[in-house]
C-alpha cells in the first residue's frame, strides 16, 4: 500500500463488471483495491465476458469470479447472491452499462450481478460507461436519477474520447477516482453504522404517533396555474419511512410529489398551505412527534380566478397574502412531552436564522439546510444538514443519502428524548 493510497484493509468489496469496452479497466481497478488491502470478489455479466476474461479478473482478485446465476456444477450455490450480498461491505458496479443501469433501476434480477445487487445490504456505487448519446438519453438519465432515489451512489461519467471516436461524457471514471470514492463511502457508512449501534437501545418509536409533512405546496391563481417551489418531498418521505420502520404510527401529509408512499404509513395528500394546515392542526393533539419537512409556501394568491387568466395586458400583478404558519401554530399549543422538529433553508446567516426560527416556533430541533453548502437542499437523493437543538447543541452531519439523514435525525431526537426521561 503506498503512503497516499486509502486504507481498505480487510474490507470486502464486490466488483460487478458489465459489457462495456471499459471492462478492461476492471483489471487496474482490482489492482488498486488489492493494493489498498481490500478483499475483492468479482461478478461478471455475459456481456462483460466478451470484453475481458474471468480468468484475468480471477487471477488479479485472487478469488472466484461469478458469472452465472445458476452455475452448472456447484450444488447449493444458487443462493450465492444472498451470501455475497451479506459478505460485502460495498458493491461497486464498474463499468455499468446503460442496460445494467436500467435493470438495477427497475429491480430486474436476471443475472448473478443484478440478483446480488437486490440482496445486498451494503452501500452500492454505480460507475456508468457508455457512448455519449446513450449517456445523455433521457431514459438513462432517469434511470440514474432513480438509482440515486433508491439510495445508490452514482459517479458521473467522465468527459473525454469515447470508443466510438466521439468526444463527450460517457467514459468510466478513472480507477483512482473510484477507489477514492469507495474509501469515502466506507468511512461514511462506518460512522453512520457506529452511531446507529450506539443508539440501538433507544431507537424505537413503538407506541408513539408521528406526524410528518413533505413536499411543496401548490397555490393556484387560476384553474390551470399554481405558485410552487422545487421541493421533491424526498426528505419527508424518508423520515416517514424510517419512523414507520421503527414502529411509529405514522401519518404523512404530503404536497404534490411523484414519490410512492412508504410502506405502513397513512398518507394524506394535500395541495395548498391552507389544506396542509387543516390536516396538521387536526393531528396536533395526538402527535407525539411532528417533523415539518414540507416546503410550505409563505404566500398564496389572495384570489383564485374562476376562469383561466387571458394575456390581455402587458403586465400582470398578482396580489399575494400570507399563508398560515403551520409549525408556529403547533408550537403555540405544544403539549408537554411532544417533540417538534422544523426545517430551515437558508442562504445567509444560516445558523442565526435557524436558531431564531427554533425559538420563535417553540421547537425542540431544527434541521438546517445551508444552501451555500454543496450538496444541501432540494436535490433529490442526498443531503448535508446541521442539526440544532433547543439545548444549544449544533451537529454537522456528513453528505449522505436522504434515508440515512432521516435515520441520523431520528437517532438524535430519540436519544435526547430518552435521556430527558431517564
Ligand atoms: N413552515 C410552516 N408554515 C409556513 C412556512 C413554513 O409550517 N407557512 C415551516 C416549514 O415546514 C419549516 C419551518 O417552518 O419546518 C421553517 O420554514 P422556512 O420557510 O425556512 O421559514 P419561515 O418561517 O417561512 O421563514 P422565512 O421564509 O422568512 O425564512
Structure description:
It is globular, with a radius of gyration of 24 Å. β7 and β8 form a beta hairpin. By secondary structure, it is an alpha/beta fold. An 8-stranded mixed sheet has the order 13-12-9-14-17-18-20-21, sandwiched between helices. It has a 6-stranded parallel sheet with strand order 3-2-1-4-5-6, sandwiched between helices. The two termini are 48 Å apart. 34% of the residues lie in helices and 23% in strands. It contains 13 helices and 22 strands. The chain has 2 domains: 179 residues, Rossmann fold; 220 residues, CoaB-like (Rossmann fold, 3-Layer(aba) Sandwich). The site of cytidine-5'-triphosphate has 14 residues, from α11 and β17.
Main beta sheet: 8 strands, mixed
CATH architecture grouping of the largest domain: 3-Layer(aba) Sandwich
Q: DSSP strand (E) fraction?
A: 15-25%
What does the radius of gyration come to? 24 Å
CATH superfamily of the largest domain: CoaB-like
Number of helices, where a helix is a run of at least 4 consecutive DSSP H or I residues: 13
Integer count of domains: 2
Name every ligand kind in the structure: cytidine-5'-triphosphate
Q: What low-confidence regions span 5 or more consecutive residues with pLDDT below 50?
A: 195-201
Overall pLDDT: 90
Which of globular, elongated, flat, extended, rod-shaped describes the shape?
globular
Q: Helical amount among residues, as a percent range?
A: 25-40%
Oligomer: single chain
Quick one: how many beta strands? 22
Amino acid at each position: 500500500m503506498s503512503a497516499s493510497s486509502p486504507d481498505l484493509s480487510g474490507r470486502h468489496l464486490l466488483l460487478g463488471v458489465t459489457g462495456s469496452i471499459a471492462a478492461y479497466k476492471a483489471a487496474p481497478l482490482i489492482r488498486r483495491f488489492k493494493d489498498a488491502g481490500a478483499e475483492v470478489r468479482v461478478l461478471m455479466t455475459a456481456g462483460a465476458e466478451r470484453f475481458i476474461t474471468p480468468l484475468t479478473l480471477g487471477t488479479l482478485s485472487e478469488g472466484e469470479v461469478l458469472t452465472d446465476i445458476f452455475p452448472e456444477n456447484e450444488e447449493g450455490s444458487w443462493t450465492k447472491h444472498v451470501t455475497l450480498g451479506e459478505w460485502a461491505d460495498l458493491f461497486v458496479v464498474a463499468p455499468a452499462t446503460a442496460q445494467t443501469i436500467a435493470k438495477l433501476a427497475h429491480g430486474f434480477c436476471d443475472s448473478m450481478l443484478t440478483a446480488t445487487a437486490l440482496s445486498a445490504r451494503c452501500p452500492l456505487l454505480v460507475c456508468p460507461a457508455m457512448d455519449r448519446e446513450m449517456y445523455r438519453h433521457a431514459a438513462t438519465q432517469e434511470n440514474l436519477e432513480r438509482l440515486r432515489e433508491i439510495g445508490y451512489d452514482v459517479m458521473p461519467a467522465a468527459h473525454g474520447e469515447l470508443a466510438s471516436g466521439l468526444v463527450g461524457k460517457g467514459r468510466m471514471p478513472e480507477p483512482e477516482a473510484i477507489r477514492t470514492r469507495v474509501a469515502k463511502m466506507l468511512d461514511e457508512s462506518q460512522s453512520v453504522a457506529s452511531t446507529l449501534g450506539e443508539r440501538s437501545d433507544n431507537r424505537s418509536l413503538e407506541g408513539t404517533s408521528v406526524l410528518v409533512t413533505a413536499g411543496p405546496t401548490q397555490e393556484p391563481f387560476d384553474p390551470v396555474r399554481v405558485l410552487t417551489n422545487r421541493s421533491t418531498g424526498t426528505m419527508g418521505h424518508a423520515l416517514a419511512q424510517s419512523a414507520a420502520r421503527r414502529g411509529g404510527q405514522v401519518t404523512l401529509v404530503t404536497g404534490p410529489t411523484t414519490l410512492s408512499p412508504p410502506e405502513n404509513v397513512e398518507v394524506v395528500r394535500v395541495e395548498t398551505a391552507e389544506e396542509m394546515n387543516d390536516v396538521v392542526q387536526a393531528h396536533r393533539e395526538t402527535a407525539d412527534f411532528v417533523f415539518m419537512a414540507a416546503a410550505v409556501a409563505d404566500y398564496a394568491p389572495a384570489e383564485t380566478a374562476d376562469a383561466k387568466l387571458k394575456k390581455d395586458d402587458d403586465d400582470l400583478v398578482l396580489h399575494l397574502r400570507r399563508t398560515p404558519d403551520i409549525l408556529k401554530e403547533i408550537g403555540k399549543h405544544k403539549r408537554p412531552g411532544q417533540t417538534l422538529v422544523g426545517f430551515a433553508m437558508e442562504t445567509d446567516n444560516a445558523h442565526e436564522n435557524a436558531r431564531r426560527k427554533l425559538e420563535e416556533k417553540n421547537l425542540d430541533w431544527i434541521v438546517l439546510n445551508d444552501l451555500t453548502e454543496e450538496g444541501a437542499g432540494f436535490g433529490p437523493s442526498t443531503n448535508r444538514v446541521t442539526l440544532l437543538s433547543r439545548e444549544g447543541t449544533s451537529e454537522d452531519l456528513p453528505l449522505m443519502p436522504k434515508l440515512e439523514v432521516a435515520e441520523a435525525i431520528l437517532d438524535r431526537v430519540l436519544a435526547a428524548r430518552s435521556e430527558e426521561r431517564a
